[in-house]
Amino acid sequence: MHGDIASVQTAIRPSIANSSWDQPQFPGVMRESSRGFLGRPTLSGHRNGKAWSTKFEVTDFHHQANHVTVTLIDFHAELEVVITFDLDVHGVLFQRATVKNIGESQYCLNEFIHWLPLPKEATQTLDFAGRWSNERNPQRKEIATGTWVRESREGRSGHNFSIADIALTAQTSFQSGSAWATSIAWSGNSHYLVEKLFDGSQSIGAGELLLPGELILESGQTYEAPALVSVYSAEGLDGVSAAYHSYLRARDVHPKRPRPLTLNMWEALYFDHDEEKIKALIDVAAEIGIERVVLDDGWFHSRRNDRAGLGDWVIDPAVWPHGLSPIIKYINDKGIEFGLWFEGEMVNPDSDLYRAHPEWILHEADRVPPLWRHQLVLDIGHEGAFNHVLEQTSAVLAAHNIAYIKWDHNRVLVDAGHLGAAGVHRQTQAIYRLFAELKKRHPGLEIESCASGGARIDLGVIDLVDRFWTSDNNDALERQTIQRWTAQVIAPELLGTHIGPTHGHQTGRTLELSMRATTALFGHAGIEWNITEATTEERKHLATWAQYYKNNRGLLHSGKMVRVDYPESHAYLHGVRAHDASRALFAYVQLTPTVSVHPSPLKFPGLDESANYVIKAVFPAGEPRFMLIAPPEWMNGITLSGSALAAIGVTAPILAPANAFLIEITKA
Ligand code: DGJ
After folding, report:
1. 540 C-alpha to center of ligand 1: Å?
2. Which of 165, 379, 408, 466 is flagged as catalytic?
3. The CATH number of 40-249 is which of 2.60.300.12, 3.30.565.10, 2.60.40.3710, 2.70.98.60?
4. Whose CA is nearest to atom 10 of ligand 1?
5. 341 lines ligand 1 (CB under 6 A)
6. Which ligand 1 atom is the nearest neighbour of the CA of 450?
7. Which of 42, 238, 375, 498 would be 528's cystine partner, CB 3.0–4.6 Å?
8. Where are the beta strands (DSSP E) in 402-491?
9. CATH assignment of 262-558, given 3.10.580.10, 3.30.1330.10, 3.20.20.70, 2.40.160.40?
10. What is the pLDDT of residues 119-167, one digit of tens each?
11. H or E stretch including 451?
């Protein structure tokens, strides 16, 4: 073994190039200029202009099984860095680091980035861009010499946050090829970087994006960098997802109860909190089989529209003269849980809180940041503001039977100062502390992380929340893509997926119930639609679909997510396969019109090749709109071997665009 290592060291020792160092330089994990490194270093900072360049020495190295700890000290810069690497049984690598100021004076930390080397086979990167209602659009591009940087400067991870940065070979697909994925576990400002130097070396990294002077370490103080959570997959992008999902599912805090079928009343009511209307909705919800109902924005003091009230977390007697207890009882009496909306990090200028404490907003100098949805950001890094939100929220929770809260964050942080210094880091830590304290005080409380839809979905907040609101866009056609890529990292049972109204409120598109229901099935399912307006037939379909979700959520929330490499762009074929390959549930989703009469067959990888399976189409929420005279015969059910299903597949029917149906595959 020792011989091997020595040989490997010799094998990779570079030549001495023209116009280069006289001896090879090995910059190591800290990537320092003092060791001949010409790219972006791991750490940068200074002591009032001094100690601006570091040269760390390894002072301790500890290795046990899949855990490595490296301690490095720079005695001149008076810094100690401890880096740990942990590889879990699912192949997920956790890189953590602390930076300690071991000097007497203050040290201003500008940046700490976790880096991983990339092999030359990685010629492309995949990251994600987006906006409100259109999160996580994939961007795949060639790696070129230079640095490709994806920054998040919103003070929340953001709609445009790249939930992962993934290096790939040119051939990597969902099912095959190498992928090197990284995901930064942080909800504040962050950056991902892919760097290719002129010497040919390339690396991928990420870290917290610190604002000027945001992190000044006092003597003896330590900064804990957000973890980088990385995966290598030799089995394509689905291999990456499988590793992330397995790690998430193995956490102690991963939700254990079956994910309750949810009715969120936002799109049914908006700010119209009329008790009779709500009761009518609950009656239909009970008939359908809903297990949790959420009262969204509009229940608290003077919140009759989105211009006032944020900051005053007390029930508004103008709309709820008898408080919330009677409606909660009405809901609970039908065996349904109750959930409530908050947006604790925000304040409207038109609120009692702002009138009393205008100084409790994140701001710089004597400026008030520009309004966004008529609101400002409360500086919860300020103890007074933190306690105000905690105590008011906690009082509502203590006085009612509330199973879960949906916690929103509807604007970005700009000019976000705390007592004259940049305050995003502090704000991010404060919201983590607040969620932890709420959960401690109210055992069993579940929290949904929402931020105008999917603007705070990340591996930083994930251990403190039980659900993410994937997107405000409930249009099933667009949701297909948003869910497909958000689930690249996040396990589907953590992603809220709702059946929206017949005519989508965001896009105005009209979609079949079967399309909306098929799309909403692949996540923590729910409905967000005024179901009192649903026809009798639609309600029957909703009830059948609700039961179908309950019968199948065990599989949907534990199996391996599969995105088939379907050769044509008009459709997605995706699903979930049980780990023992005994069952699978797929959706065939026709996005756009087909070009040919007979589209590519539907093939199902990963089943037990030697076993026989029954494959059939199912329609728990009604049939899709077909564009043919007679659908293929297999849809009624046939038996095929796992190898035939993988290699030959079954004929795809022609559907009208924006239609979908489910395919059940069960071992015979
Ligand atoms: C934005 C969220 O994403 C919506 O679901 C809803 O809760 C509104 N805010 C309420 O203001």
Report:
1. 28
2. 408
3. 2.70.98.60
4. 297
5. yes
6. 3
7. 498
8. 404-407, 417-418, 421-422, 446-449, 467-469
9. 3.20.20.70
10. 999 999 999 999 999 999 999 999 999 999 999 999 999 999 999 999 9
11. none
